[in-house]
# Entry
Amino acid sequence: MKLNTAILLVLLLAGLAFTVTAFIQNTSPYVKVSQLAQRAENVHVALKPLKETIQFDMRSMTLAFEGEDETGKVKVVYPKGKPNNFEMASQVVVIGSYRDGVFYAEDMLVKCPSKYQGTETTQGR
# Structure
């Protein structure tokens, strides 16, 4: 095998190994509230926001609220302002880490109810 071919093959394998490692490190699984203590770093949690717990600090642009799933409740702190339509959200997916009983969200996806849900009509027979 020629030296140039061997160098190219080594560089290709190193690039592939780097890509796979970066992908694995940046993958974040979905977890339930009850699993947060075991998998505290870089996770997704799907929650129903509890409307009565919503607090928004205009000075720091920090949103804090409690959210729940079928396994429990957790306090969420999101330092990037209040997302559009947050009050109408039926579910949010928070992405971040869990420390000291609080989930610190780095990103948030807001899922609003569809405008087509709940509009069943009864047609005459």
